[in-house]
Automatic annotation (TrEMBL):
1-deoxy-D-xylulose 5-phosphate binds at residues 122, 148-149, 173, 196, 209, 214-215, 218. The keyword Manganese applies. It catalyses: 2-C-methyl-D-erythritol 4-phosphate + NADP(+) = 1-deoxy-D-xylulose 5-phosphate + NADPH + H(+). Residues 143-226 form the 1-deoxy-D-xylulose 5-phosphate reductoisomerase C-terminal domain. Its EC number is 1.1.1.267. The keyword Manganese applies. HAMAP family: DXP_reductoisom (MF_00183). Mn(2+) binds at residues 147, 149, 218. This is 1-deoxy-D-xylulose 5-phosphate reductoisomerase. It is an enzyme of class 1 (oxidoreductase). Its cofactor is Mg(2+); Mn(2+). SUPFAM superfamilies: 1-deoxy-D-xylulose-5-phosphate reductoisomerase, C-terminal domain, Glyceraldehyde-3-phosphate dehydrogenase-like, C-terminal domain, NAD(P)-binding Rossmann-fold domains.
């Protein structure tokens, strides 16, 4: 039996992972499941999967978790240290699906134990890509991408030599406001921003799809994971969201990955790698779909892509600044403090404000230094949000 753990088990990726595991439960020995606020779901899944351990990130909710697990053999724990302990429990395969920079430390811990880390938490690569890759190499751990575009690139690269790659194109649906007049974006509501035309995902990543900050993060993620240059990475708007990525080789050929909008494909690929398994995802009827469209993203609607390029050019730990500013701006929009287009303004402002800390940003990348940069950038971004909120 394969020992598996799921960090962020109660979220959208976590629940899709659990779905795949439950369909073939005899093959898996579930070690740890973690969540944060959704105690009922966490306890229910931990008991159904007979996990050894259930952890909530919220230290104040340990008693509630214990109550929910009463009568079962599942051990309960809570808080940030417990989360790290869960990631340290020996497992063959660990899903990293916590949302935000909070996923970095548990993912790093898992790598230190030489596991195979299925990485959905893109923020860890954006904030600390080189540290993550170095840690994986030092401990003979494997990272498998779960983000659909990166799984697509990874699949297109099987059997290929990365040195023959000329370009990598990742696609974006364009999100909720793809076809809105740009001047109307200032009036976009939270309700409108959190409905995605094609994918069913968590609230934060859905709004990030509308600003294209999700794609901006994925450009940085591509650079970090596949070690290509920023100039080699392109983004295309592709409203059908069926071609997830294309890899262009030096001989002019391109490999495109086509698949349904169902994260269980990418999760299942990482779960069964290096083999392919039968997965419960829809088979595409291309004749019924009829056509696949592609177009260039425009800067006035989606400044996030340009900001990601600025962050990559600045180097060092600017990825952590970018992510922290983006997360804080998103909190500001969700709270109603700033308008939809102001999220990009906050990130641009924070990148400028943080350039005064170039010593720290250019320092050695360690978890502590990334946390320091993250903290300062959140403070700067929060100040910018409050200034705009008045
Ligand atoms: P969700 O918001 O649906 O789930 C997030 C998970 O993280 C939940 O289990 C949540 O617990 C937990 N969590 C929240 N805050 C904390 C914290 N501070 N510490 C520890 N755990 C916490 O997110 P998604 O599943 O959509 O996304 C997860 C990651 O995968 C993100 O990095 C996202 O960018 C990436 N991703 C997601 C895709 C998707 O289709 N959803 C596609 C590609 C990448 P609880 O719910 O109990 O509060
Ligand atoms: Mg993606």
């Amino acid at each position: 039996m394969r020992k598996v753990s799921i960090l962020g088990a109660t979220g959208s990726i976590g629940q899709n992972t659990i779905d795949l595991i439950r369909r073939n439960q005899d093959a898996y020995d579930v070690v740890a499941l973690t969540g944060a606020s959704n105690i009922a779901q966490l306890a229910k899944d931990a008991m159904a999967l007979r996990a050894d351990l259930a952890v909530t990130a919220d230290a104040a909710r340990l008693d509630e978790l214990r109550d929910a697990l009463r009568g079962s053999d599942v051990e309960a724990a809570a808080g940030e240290t417990a989360l790290i302990d869960a990631a340290a429990r020996p497992a063959d395969w660990i899903m990293s699906a916590i949302v935000g920079a909070a996923g970095l430390a548990p993912g790093m811990e898992a790598l230190k134990h030489g596991t195979t880390l299925a990485l959905a938490n893109k923020e860890s690569l954006v904030c600390a890509g080189s540290l993550l890759l170095k840690t994986a190499a030092a401990h003979k751990a494997t990272i498998l991408p779960v983000d659909s575009e990166h799984s697509a690139i990874f699949q297109a690269l099987q059997g290929e030599d990365i040195r023959t790659v000329e370009r990598i194109i990742i696609t974006a649906s364009g999100g909720a406001f793809r076809d809105w007049p740009v001047e109307d974006l200032a009036h976009a509501t939270l309700e409108q921003a959190q409905s995605h035309p094609n994918w069913d995902m968590g609230q934060r990543i859905t709004i990030d799809s509308a600003t294209l900050f999700n794609k901006a993060m994925e450009v940085i993620e591509t650079r970090e994971f596949f070690q290509v240059t920023p100039e080699q990475i392109e983004v295309l708007i592709h409203p059908q969201s069926l071609v997830h990525a294309l890899v262009g080789f030096r001989d002019g050929g391109m490999m495109a990955h086509v698949g349904p909008h169902d994260m269980r494909h990418a999760i299942g690929y990482a779960l069964h790698h290096p083999t392919r398994a039968d997965l419960p995802v829809d088979r595409l009827d291309l004749a019924a779909i009829g056509r696949l469209e592609f177009r260039d993203p425009d800067d006035a609607r989606w400044p996030a892509l340009r900001l990601a390029r600025e962050a990559m050019a600045a180097g060092g730990m600017t990825g952590a600044v970018f992510n922290a500013a983006k997360e804080t701006a998103l909190d500001g929009f969700i709270a109603g403090a700033i308008a939809f287009p102001e999220m990009a303004d906050i990130v641009a402002q924070t990148l400028t404000d943080m350039s005064g800390h170039s010593g720290l940003i250019g320092d050695t990348m360690t978890l502590d230094n990334v946390a320091k940069v993250d903290h300062l950038a959140r403070k700067a971004a929060q100040a910018a949000v409050e200034k705009r909120a008045g």
